[in-house]
């Protein structure tokens, strides 16, 4: 093992269409753009099991779990072999620095195994400031128009969101998060820089897992970021086919004076028209865009610190996100349903090798969250223990070095064991497993890459393709149940369905 280090930077709920490296031309993300120019951008990266907690399990075990409800939004089992377990006796120091309150919840176990664990408290509905804290005296939902309770005929939902938002306001008041330096992303990045500074003279290799809640909602960035894109003329949002938002919604946006629309900092997951109006959705997108820019600004602080320390020369940097963020593309916001559309399932992956080696390009291989663990093991020169559960993911370093062109022909994924999907370069098949009588779901097929945001279901025109993809997906799930993924590797050819 060499003297190399690795830093994995994770964002929660980062919409791919809001990043410059993935085609957006109107949101400022210069620091991530710089990382992309020095690294390898993977254009086809997908989770396997959504959302927040299941994706961390995918990253840390290197194994698929999407068909199994027990491997979903559930605690890590004490005997599950996870990433820090594989490094603790191999001379690699591990650290988890995170402001994701969902990871910190009692009994979930997502902080175990790391040598250093630092929780940066106070993001979202994190129960940091209790109701009887005198510092939060006077906090009232009536004073915050950016929060809107569910309808009166949903008393349980009303009480749930009232509790969440009162917690949010208490945290905001005490932490003074309206100041940029006190925002969650700023405090988390500064904590990481402090950790790195303390280790600047230590020669022991390290893995730093920097897990950031932003740009996950609630979207309450400092005012300058909240309003940064509010006054842009709507036509400036239309960058190109790869970077714009949904066309039919943009047409309506031209008739809206966005500056007169109330700013919503948080909404319950739900349908456009129920939890917010179309006009409020357009304004919310701008707030979200400002939050993405805030994240980028503080990642710039991290990258600058790494340059100052000389760590850019001996450190692997991975940037990714656990999931996207539905923002009205299919008529709803947040994870309202387990609907596996592009805005949720297509996630960024940028890998910068030490010294920027092999950087400056894009890769078209289909990769998934399960590939991160075997890649990190290979980077540190380690072998997966024979007595540990076998890895399902594949090392992507040969792709970066140009030694391979692909590691799989398709990505299989799911959410809540209620909906599965399979993605190739040319097709995206969505397969519902649970039929809600009030909102029936049928299988859907989308042509890629031209239908980027899954707007034109072509399953009736391509029934043979859909049948083949569904059979492939079901065989994958069956092999997964037998833990026999070698049956699916080496790759099965689906080229005749890719034209």
Automatic annotation (TrEMBL):
Keywords attached to this entry: Hydrolase
InterPro entries: Alkaline_phosphatase_core_sf, Sulfatase, Sulfatase_N
Keyword Hydrolase among UniProt keywords: yes
Region of interest: Disordered: 135-156
Keyword Glycoprotein assigned: no
Molecular function via GO: arylsulfatase activity
Enzyme Commission designation: 3.1.6.1
Domain Sulfatase N-terminal: 5-381
Enzyme type, top EC level: hydrolase
PANTHER family: ARYLSULFATASE, ARYLSULFATASE FAMILY MEMBER
Entry's family note: Belongs to the sulfatase family.
Record's protein name: Arylsulfatase
